[in-house]
Amino acid sequence: xxxxxxxxxxxxxxxxxxxxxxxxxxxxxxxxxxxxxxxxxxxxxxxxxxxxxxxxxxxxxxxxxxxxxxxxxxxxxxxxxxxxxxxxxxxxxxxxxxxxxxxxxxxxxxxxxxxxxxxxxxxxxxxx
Length: 128
Known about the structure:
The protein is α+β, with helices and mostly antiparallel strands. The protein has two helices and six strands. The protein has a six-stranded antiparallel β-sheet with strand order 2-3-1-4-6-5, with helices on one face. A hairpin with a 4-residue loop joins strand 5 (106-114) and strand 6 (119-126). The longest helix is centred in the N-terminal third of the chain and has 14 residues, at 19-32.
């Protein structure tokens, strides 16, 4: 499969969290959007620093609708502790990933930087 145009990708990085929590967030997002692993996207379940990555990353293809049938139940991905997430991409693409995260988690917006054609959003996710 050819990579999507760069303007339709959102890079997601997760940090300051347990490996199992990072795995839950990445699995939820990669179940909704096509993706390309960019490093540490699938940590070893149960492993924590210093024996596992401290940052996980994936690049999501948001050029199409999320890969999902219509849902009757809300998205769920329980977390044991908060997860720091950074979304980076074109503003409308970042909004699509932000909306997916907002369905599954309580979000605290911790900051946003907008450039000419790109936006970076920092979030703190907690379980509902």
